[in-house]
Amino acid sequence: MLFFLETTISGLMSGVMYALVALGFVLIYKASGVFNFAQGVMALFAGLTLAGLMERFGLPAWLAILATVAVMTVLAVAIERVVLRPLVGQPHIILFMATIGLAYVLEGAGDLIWGSDVKVLEIGLPQGASDLLLDKYGLYVEKLEAVAAVTAAVLVAALAFFFQKTKVGRALRAVADDHQAALSVGINLNTIWVIVWAVAGVVALVAGIMWGAKSGIQFSLSLIALKALPVLMLGGFESVAGAIVGGIIIGIGEKLAEVYVGPFVGGAIESWFAYVLALIFLLFRPQGLFGERIIERV
Amino acid sequence: MFYREAGQFKTSYAADQAIFPIAQDRWFIAALLAVAYVVVPLTADEYWFQALLIPFLVYSVAAIGLNILTGYCGQLSLGTGGFMAVGAYASYKLMTAFPELNLIVVFLLSGLITAAVGVLFGIPSLRIKGFYLAVATLAAQFFLVWLFNKVPWFYNYSATGQITVPEAALFGITLTGPAASPVAKYLFVLATVTALALFAKNLARSRTGRCWMAIRDMDIAAEIIGIRPLATKLTAFAVSSFYVGIAGALMFAVWLGSAEPTEAFNIDKSFLVLFMIIIGGLGTILGSFFGAAFMVVMPIALKNLMVDALGFSTGVAEHVQIMLMGALIVFFLIVEPHGMARLWQIGKEKLRLWPFPY
């Protein structure tokens, strides 16, 4: 029973981590209709920049974080100028493929600038097991993962407020519905895109910090993005809540399946379990748990 | 001037509907084939065959396959690597279980097996569309690679987990294994590619191909005018996987000789083939060749330039290559969304008027 509980909690926590990356996806999709494949690489890039700044220039953590936020903002402006602006009004699938290209550019650039070796990220986040739970109930819970869960919760609350209650949030949703219609009612598409990519960059930075503190900053971080995709499918692309719920379902399901089913089929089913789970789920509900119903007409 | 078609009159429907209705195109293709079948085998050395020509031809088949699904039918797939693995493992199992089987039959069967697997993973495409489907095909990618890694039956319980091609011959000429001569391999792959490309070109011009394009352009409208979406999408998945499966089988049996699923058929392969069709041109057979040629030659050229000529380290060259590949994708999507095939077409139109532009 205790083992089951520990597995569940560890699944829950890694689910929150997936959700953090998935959040960045949802944000950009919700606000611009662009399915940003580069989100995982953005997390890697942000993490690399942060670690690189601290390592090479010896900046203190808070300054390095501020500098990285600035870098991500500049990056957002550059992406808007170079990639998105010429592609206004193109089919979504074209924009998606452009972000695949973007992912490769960022990956190459990050490695080129900061080197491709594994970097340790030391910015003073708590490490190790939580003593209280361990002593009292014999439960092993990582402090870092608890911090990540709280951070994710705060981020989600802030984003939900931003989308529902602010004027910019409403403009973002209008852009997502139809680029050209939004342009014609006087929404400045370029500003919106810069804002949303910058915010997504910051979310990527948070995800990068959390994953980086857990297992070092390395290339595998960008593969986390591939884990975030089934989370999105399950939760629905437009839903912030969906990213969280989907992340938790995938995280727990994956850990439980690995521990209880894995041994019978040769193990390492974590690599595809999430996808197959999401695929089967989609057969019954094609728009995901919280996705908007797709109504199509000619 | 070179492309003036004045005076070429078509006097029958067959002539009007020919694949190459213009005489210059026919001569060009005939010359190209003559070079490929006669001049190249006489002049190229082993490095050219193994590093450039055979990979180019193998990837062309894969690119045609993905282009049928994504370019013609509009179903984005990221599972190409997984389907190539199916073709490779199918050919391996067939060749080891039935050593007497004719090689052509082996490759055709591998393609058919892959087609069946492709249809299986294509079934959700009726309900799932766009991005959701792209992500769903990733399920195929990861699941298939895992399967070939974990189930020992697929690699005949070999200790390394690798598959190595047994020696096989066609009409008395050894084609697979280390004893095969590069020229024989090249000619075999070239013949396969010629046949498959011709078939794909004709299929795309037929009723089937038109149905694919109708579904791609607007699926609901296509359904209303009487095209059955499920049947059309599934044929696209089947034909596409057939090509990709044969590409995988050729890659393993003829080009590489041995393979290991996590190395040879990982997700990077899926993206590589996707990039080929974007850069080459979505929805054209010609573009698949352009894209494959470009993506095979580019890394080698870049490595020669950066490492050998300019003295950078291989690591730096690799990062630059990744960056350049991504930048090219974005560049092509913005500047010429129809890829190099469209550039070729524009070039031909300019040649028609040359030297007077108006």
From TrEMBL, chain A:
Superkingdom assignment: Bacteria
An example Gene Ontology CC term for this record: plasma membrane
Keywords for this entry?
Amino-acid transport, Cell membrane, Membrane, Transmembrane, Transmembrane helix, Transport
Q: Which CDD domains match?
A: TM_PBP1_LivH_like
**Transmembrane residues, as ranges?**
12-29, 35-54, 61-79, 91-114, 144-163, 192-212, 224-252, 264-284
Name of a matching Pfam family: BPD_transp_2
Q: Does the keyword Transmembrane helix apply?
A: yes
Main subcellular location of this protein, as a coarse class: membrane
| GO biological process terms on file | amino acid transport
The record's GO molecular-function terms, alphabetically, read: transmembrane transporter activity
**Carries keyword Zinc-finger?**
no
Compartments where found: Cell inner membrane
Annotated membrane topology: Multi-pass membrane protein
The entry assigns this protein to a family as follows: Belongs to the binding-protein-dependent transport system permease family. LivHM subfamily.
Protein name as it appears in the record: Amino acid/amide ABC transporter membrane protein 1 (HAAT family)
Species classification: Bacteria, Pseudomonadati, Pseudomonadota, Gammaproteobacteria, Chromatiales
TrEMBL record, chain B:
Query: What keywords are annotated for this sequence in UniProt?
Result: Cell membrane, Membrane, Transmembrane, Transmembrane helix
Q: How does it sit in the membrane?
A: Multi-pass membrane protein
Keyword Glycoprotein present in the record's keywords: the answer is: no
Among InterPro entries, the record links this protein to: ABC_transp_permease, LivM-like
Tell me where the transmembrane regions lie.
27-44, 50-69, 76-95, 101-123, 130-148, 183-200, 234-258, 270-297, 309-335
Give one Pfam hit by family name. Answer: BPD_transp_2
Q: What CDD domains does the record point to?
A: TM_PBP1_LivM_like
What's a single GO MF annotation on this record? branched-chain amino acid transmembrane transporter activity
Q: Which GO terms describe its cellular component?
A: plasma membrane
Its localization reads: Cell inner membrane
Keyword Transmembrane carried by entry: yes
Xref: PANTHER family: ABC TRANSPORTER PERMEASE PROTEIN (PTHR30482:SF5), HIGH-AFFINITY BRANCHED-CHAIN AMINO ACID TRANSPORT SYSTEM PERMEASE (PTHR30482)
Name the chain's protein.
Branched-chain amino acid transport system permease protein
